[in-house]
């Protein structure tokens, strides 16, 4: 047994306190939390290798798509903290790569430990701090634009 589904559900809840104030980004964050929750549940409920493999591949794509969107906003609007935000994204992509390696080696206990520990904390911390800072920058720009 890797843990209980109940613990995981709490860990991956997106709450309004994590809102960055920009709808498209918030919607993608909610989707990301749901994808992580789904993968954790699948692993813990032994839903099968193929399903987990597909879910990890989908997650990888989704994360890249999400990061590209934020990075595009940052470039277009000349966000001053672009480099440090980018390096956090890069770190996350590396963590995801390590996850897939654990999965391919069949190391499920490390996989679940990383998803529910390292990854979930990273995600919450990144959204709550780094993405929120970006969100208020974007909101300011938009408010000025429409004034
Ligand atoms: Fe970000
Ligand atoms: Fe984000």
Plain-language structure description:
It is built from five helices and no strands. It has helices at residues 5-11, 23-44, 49-76, 82-104, 108-146. It has a domain at 39-89 and 97-146. By secondary structure, it is mostly helical. It is elongated, with a radius of gyration of 16 Å. Helix 1 (5-11) packs antiparallel against helix 2. One fe (ii) ion binds next to helix 3 and helix 5. One fe (ii) ion is lined by residues 70, 85, 89, 126, 130-131.
List keywords for this structure.
81% helix, 147 residues, disordered N terminus, mainly alpha, binds fe (ii) ion
* DSSP summary: helix tally: 5
Shape: elongated
The hetero molecules present are: fe (ii) ion
Kindly, what is the distance between the CA atoms of the first and last residues, rounded to a whole number of angstroms?
A: 56 Å
What pattern of helices and strands is seen along the backbone? Answer: HHHHH
Low-confidence stretches: 1-10
Beta-strand content estimate: under 5%
Rg from Cα: 16 Å
Largest sheet: none
Helix content percent band = over 70%
Mean pLDDT, all residues = 88
Number of strands: 0
Question: Helix- and strand-based class?
Answer: mainly alpha
Secondary structure: elements and pairs:
Elements: H1 5-11, H2 23-44, H3 49-76, H4 82-104, H5 108-146
The structure holds fe (ii) ion (2 copies).
Summarize, please:
The chain is mostly helical and 147 residues long. The chain has helices at 5-11, 23-44, 49-76, 82-104, 108-146.
């Amino acid at each position: 047994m890797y843990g209980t589904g109940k613990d995981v559900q709490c860990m991956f809840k997106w709450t309004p306190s994590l809102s960055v104030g920009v709808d498209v980004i918030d919607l993608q964050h909610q989707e990301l939390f749901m994808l992580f929750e789904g993968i954790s549940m699948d692993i813990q409920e032994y839903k099968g290798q193929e399903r987990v493999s597909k879910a990890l591949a989908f997650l990888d794509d989704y994360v890249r798509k999400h990061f590209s969107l934020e990075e595009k906003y940052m470039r277009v609007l000349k966000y001053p903290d672009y480099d440090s935000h980018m390096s956090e994204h890069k770190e996350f992509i590396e963590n995801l790569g390590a996850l897939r390696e654990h999965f391919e080696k069949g190391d499920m206990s490390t996989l679940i430990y990383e998803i529910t520990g390292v990854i979930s904390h990273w995600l919450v911390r990144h959204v709550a701090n780094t993405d929120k800072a970006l969100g208020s920058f974007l909101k300011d720009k938009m408010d000025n634009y429409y004034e």
